[in-house]
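hey can u check if this looks right to u? its 266 residues, i copy pasted from the old doc so theres a chance i mangled smth
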Amino acid sequence: MNARTEPAGAEAERDTPVRPPLIREFLLVAGLFLVYKVGRRLATGHTADAFRNARRVWHLERAADLPQETAVQSALLHGDTLVHLANTYYATVHFPATLAFLVWLYLRRPAHYVWARRVLAAVTTAALVLPFTFPLAPPRMLTGTGLVDTAQVYGPSVYGPPSSDHLSNQFAAMPSLHFGWALMVAIGLIAATRSRWRGLWLLHPLITLLVIVGTANHYWLDAIAATAMLGVALAVIHPPQHTATTAGHGTGRPVTREPVLAGAGR
């Protein structure tokens, strides 16, 4: 039996995933955000259908005995500070949190970065189809529901009047990519780390869900549709397996390797 050992460092180097080229990834991620914005803008001009569909969604939620969006909003309206924080969260957290998530994965977990970027791209591309086939006005635009547009009343607001807002399509409420991206951020961080506290990342999509519903920017069904799309993408695009080289990341514990006996058993 040959007892010659291979250096542990050589094996670790083989198991370390290769980080994708930075410039290419910057262009891909920038393209993803651009497609998100431009694609939704292309699906404009369906105002009547958007309001008809909004009534259908509202009545469907009541028939399905889903919680009233007004209950969540009432909780926010107990104080100006809380509703202002909710509006700020909606306006400022969505894009920066997703971008920070991708940057951290790129630097620390390259294999998980590639997986997460593919999932986000798939969900975003699929989500751009619905505004063409099912335009939907957000609940803040519906009359007779008891909901108010909290961003317009309390601020800050990211939207102007729909007739003059040329930066966004306000009739593309379904699915909620605010929630879909937030849920992917949590799932991605849970999959890529080994901290015993990693489940707390689920607070991000939970807070996002309460914010998008409480501010009357989305229906419950918008979040359900986003979850379904994300579930399909995750079923098709599998995450990388944790290897011995990455198992200790996030725990603060060094990973030790046993010497490998080359030619053992020959």
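Residues 3-15, 243-266 have pLDDT under 50 and may be disordered.
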